[in-house]
Amino acid sequence: MQSFMRAVALVGAFNISVIDVPKPTIINSTDAVVRIAASAICGSDLHRYHQNSASPENPQQIGHEAIGYIEDVGDSVEFLKAGDWVVIPFAFDDGHYQYGPMIDAPAASSIAEYARIPFADESLMPVPINASTNTSTIHDYLFMSDILAAGWTALDFAGQEPGDTVAVFGAGPVGQMAILSAGLRGASKIYVVDHVQDRLDLAAAHGAIPVNFAVEEPVEALRRFEPAGVTRVLDCVGYEAEDAAGNVNSSIVLHQAGQVVAPQGGIGIVGVYGSGNQEQTVDIKPLFMNNFSVRGGVSSPLSLGTQMLNLIMTGKLHPGSIISAVIGIEEAPEYYARFNRREETKVVIEFPY
Length: 353
Known about the structure:
Layout: E1 4-12, E2 15-22, E3 32-41, H1 45-49, E4 60-61, E5 66-73, E6 85-88, E7 114-117, H2 120-123, E8 125-126, H3 135-142, H4 147-158, E9 165-169, H5 173-184, E10 189-194, H6 197-205, E11 209-212, H7 218-225, E12 230-235, H8 252-260, E13 261-269, H9 285-290, E14 293-296, H10 301-313, E15 325-327, H11 332-340, E16 347-350
Helix pairs in contact: 4-5, 7-8
């Protein structure tokens, strides 16, 4: 007899529902089935949330940040067993890992009670959790699945070195991870640009100097602080960036980054581009005249797993400090709406385990 579980799904634009779906089982010998202990709502979920690509008749499960323990493994899984705690990264490894996500990976449906993970030995990230591990540590490990890796990677893309100044555009979850990481990596000053005051206040508590673009023009503000420019600039926003009037302008962060980065500096882009229909128009002259570098793309949690784990285990990094709400799965529709209105910074969904 088939078993069912609760899962979060899109059923239309700005419309989330909690539905019953079949509980996953082992299909291939390299699979594992993970009992989810905690998932999270990600900013990149909102790109799908804004699109009318699902319906009640054709629901689409959502979510790609999760942690839990293994319930079952296929016969070919060698290094994992039932009971092991693992982080589920948003991108999997089929043994021939390429940079970037596997488009059809079921991690895009991990706000659910269970998830089937292919290529489990290569794809799952074991973490040292036992009966004495507290909830805050579990939440710290959870963010290894995506946002911590993204924030760290933005700094890698920008080429951060100790002593650099750093400007982070976007004080959402990835921007907050970039701020925590930049401080740990020796930034001399960190600036953050956003217009959501609660998020700016949180960033300030983590050591960043806030710039509210609804109050002051960010290029002018950053140039006032750093007349020679900011050494490393991070785009943690992407194609749904807004201007001071609240209008979507998918080029504005890229344009402003080019105006504030110092000569010989670097821009790192981890905000999502390519998912929408908007075109980006950027003036290439500052790049040519000031000889700064630009690099962007998708992060790789699997490549950073050991490094992230060590930073959390040694107490040097506490990514769970950005959580604004912990909820149960039935509250997900309300909290997707709250997150979309920027009334929450990071929402974690907990499951009984």
